[in-house]
Write a structure and sequence with these properties.
430 residues; alpha/beta; eight-stranded mixed beta sheet
């Protein structure tokens, strides 16, 4: 249905926590799934935060750079996903982020094909949320924000948060107007920590308000540092209720923008795709309409390599050894035009070039089945313990949810072995 970019800023406004809340609260129609991509160049936070280290850091975005160079981006991405759905039915998926910010330069040439791929799987039954964090909307990864249907910026309603967000919102709006789908893709996700209301912030910045999330530290800590997301109190919390409302507003904005950018427009077929439809051995009459771009077979495991003839898999780089001079398409795949690397048919021209009509938004369409297979999907993480083993619950007189540390039980002999001197005397001597 849509590709949504969630952007943060200085002061830790909670972009990753908001993205996770949207992932868990996103309404899904039958047959659809949602994918959260941690694309923050500063590194991911979900594996060590919400998942509490229960999944090894062997899955994630860092594996896609090498796969892209080998022309296996479309196959490899399905092997890096983690199932976060409560029922274990792979409806809510996570692509973990980088484990080290030093890995970000290696993805400089992967952001562009990754953005194309995310728009492709969006047409295959997936909604996509891209967590860009603090710095992901600038630099080489900015293409993920420019291609997004909606760019939701998380802002705290404090004076410090609003002051830090103002220049970033202005720069992001200019960049989207010049190189993206338009500045009207911007929207605000407000964290109600300060005294300013959502209507005041929306009027001051001149941007639509997509949602107002409560400043609920205990509930948000489940998403930022781990906890039981199956708890009924968490599911019915104010944070998750407002996240569901925000998801509805985001979807409404996506429909309005697509109707404005491409009113009554059918998915376009590029000349290369039309030639393939009429060529011998092409898709044939059954594939009339949107062009089928092979990402993964609908019912068989994803192959790692194949020597059979046919179109190259989506994501094969134009600069690779098999994409130049051998009659095989590189990034100029059917449905994406014949442009070179980084210049897909779905990119929009910059303003001020004298076009007679505004640019139309026609993302590529992939028709390979209801959903793509999740070959190599990581197992669903085990449910977390209510609290760590070294912590015991407080008495009934204390607040619910508060714990006190359990004092270690040591015998006098163990104390003498560990501390040959009286600790008090040692401190006094110092």
């Amino acid at each position: 249905m849509a590709v949504i970019a969630v952007v943060g800023g200085p002061g830790a406004p909670g972009a990753t926590t908001t993205a996770l809340a949207l992932l868990l609260a996103w309404p899904l129609r039958p047959g659809r799934r949602i994918l959260l991509v941690e694309a923050d160049p500063d590194g991911g936070a979900v594996l060590a935060g919400a998942l509490e280290g229960r999944v090894e850091a062997v899955y994630g975005l860092r594996n896609l750079a090498v796969a892209d160079r080998r022309g296996l981006l479309a196959q490899t991405i399905w092997e890096q996903l983690i199932d976060l759905s409560l029922e274990g039915n792979a409806e809510r998926l996570l692509l973990p982020g980088l484990t080290d910010p030093a890995q970000a330069p290696g993805l400089a040439y992967t952001w562009e094909p990754l953005a194309e791929l995310l728009h492709g799987i969006e047409q295959q039954g997936y909604d996509v949320i891209v967590d860009l964090g603090r710095s992901g909307a600038t630099g080489t990864s900015a293409v993920l924000a420019r291609r997004a249907d909606v760019v939701a910026v998380t802002v705290r309603s404090t004076l410090r948060g609003l002051s830090a967000a103002r220049p970033r919102l202005a720069a992001l709006g200019e960049d989207l107007a010049a190189a993206g789908t338009g500045a009207d893709a911007l929207g605000l996700l407000l964290v109600a920590e300060g005294p300013y209301s959502g209507a005041e912030v929306s009027r001051e910045f001149g941007l639509p308000l997509l949602g107002v999330l409560p400043y609920a530290t205990r509930t948000a800590r489940v998403l930022s540092d781990g906890g039981d997301t199956t708890d009924r109190r968490f599911i019915r919390s104010e944070l998750m209720r407002t996240a569901r409302s925000a998801a509805d507003e985001v979807q409404l904005l996506v429909r309005r923008r697509r109707q404005r950018l491409a009113p009554n427009a059918a998915p376009a077929v590029a000349p290369a795709a039309a030639a393939q439809l009429s060529a011998p051995g092409g898709p044939g009459p059954a594939a009339a309409g949107p062009v089928a771009v092979p990402v993964a077979p609908p019912s068989v495991p994803v192959p790692q390599a194949s020597s059979a003839p046919g179109p190259a898999p989506y994501g094969r780089p134009a600069y690779g050894p098999t994409g130049q001079g051998q009659g095989q398409p590189g990034y100029a795949q059917p449905g994406y035009g014949q442009s070179g690397y980084g210049q897909s048919a779905h990119a929009h021209p910059a303003h001020g070039q004298g076009e007679a009509e505004p640019p139309s938004y026609a993302p590529p369409v992939i028709t390979t089945g209801p959903v793509a297979p999740l070959a190599g999907l990581a197992p669903q993480p085990a449910a977390p313990a209510p609290f760590p083993a070294h912590v015991q619950a407080a008495g009934p007189a204390e607040d619910e949810g508060q714990y006190r540390l359990q004092q270690p039980m040591m015998t006098s002999d163990q104390i003498e072995d560990r501390y040959p001197y009286n600790p008090g005397e040692v401190l006094r001597a110092r």
